[in-house]
């Protein structure tokens, strides 16, 4: 089992347009479109940064975890996503080591991925997403 790389940073902006303009027009990073992830009640705007992405997260509903994040914490980095080689093995490994998971089974993520979140209580306060890329 290996962690391949940082896949993306999940960022919750206060002003999506201002944030996109900064990363694309000011810094010159490439915008790669967006995707609605209905299960998570979020729109994800993708910005490419070399081998990783920035994901700008916007809620589609007041019940969205992203809406709750904005309300309680304000804008900022919401999570770090680590790309793994075998998500099922990683989930089992973490469970065996008494690591608290938000997702004990993989679920669908943006960009045709399988994902699972590790609870911040087990990571020292950082929300960690494990990502497994799928064949397109």
Automatic annotation (TrEMBL):
Residues 5-133 form the VOC domain. InterPro entries: Glyas_Bleomycin-R_OHBP_Dase, MeMalonyl-CoA_epimerase, MMCE/EMCE_epimerase, VOC_core. GO terms for biological process: L-methylmalonyl-CoA metabolic process. This is Methylmalonyl-CoA epimerase. It comes from the Bacteria. One of its GO terms (molecular function) is methylmalonyl-CoA epimerase activity. It comes from Silvanigrella aquatica. SUPFAM superfamilies: Glyoxalase/Bleomycin resistance protein/Dihydroxybiphenyl dioxygenase (SSF54593). Coiled coil: none annotated. Keywords: Metal-binding. Pfam families: Glyoxalase_4 (PF13669). Belongs to the methylmalonyl-CoA epimerase family.
């Amino acid at each position: 089992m290996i962690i391949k790389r940082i896949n993306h940073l999940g960022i919750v902006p206060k002003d999506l347009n201002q944030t996109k303009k900064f990363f694309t027009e000011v810094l010159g990073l490439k915008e790669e479109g967006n995707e609605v992830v209905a299960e998570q009640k979020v729109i994800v705007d993708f910005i490419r940064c070399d081998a990783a992405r920035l994901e700008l997260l916007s809620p589609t509903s007041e019940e969205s975890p992203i809406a709750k994040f904005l309300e309680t914490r304000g804008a900022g980095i919401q999570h770090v996503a680590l790309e793994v080689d075998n998500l099922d093995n990683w989930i089992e490994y973490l469970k065996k080591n008494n690591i608290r998971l938000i997702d004990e089974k993989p679920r669908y993520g943006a960009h045709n991925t399988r994902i699972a979140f590790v609870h911040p209580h087990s990571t020292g306060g950082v929300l960690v997403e494990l990502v497994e890329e799928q064949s397109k």
